[in-house]
Fold:
Amino acid sequence: MEINWLDKAIFLNKTSDKVGFTWKNVEQIYDKIHSEIQEVKEALLQQERHHRVAEEIGDLMFSVIALACFLKVDPEQAFTGGITKYEKRFRFVLKIFEEKGISLGNDLSTKFLLEVWEEAKARAIKSGAAGED
Structure:
């Protein structure tokens, strides 16, 4: 039986901690996450091959899982919660589009889309359908 990627990442983080290969404080992890984001940007700017970009995104994801483990947050629950929150908010986005007569696939400005997202977020919070952040 093969272990899934998330369980493997959690296991590796816990195993690293047990042998002393661990983060001393949360600031170190923040720095690592920022460094990994920079590496993704650099790979994109240098038009690296797709596998290099994917590799850097994998490093970023592993660093975020390390942050969750360090903070004693279950990464799977956190990720599932984030997906659920996004899904609920996105339903409000679709409802707003319908109310405004906007069809999907239109070339809409980022500014407009962010405004719709904020409205959807506010509606979700008001309805109790999604968290406040």
Q: What stands out?
A: The chain has two domains: 5-73, 78-127.
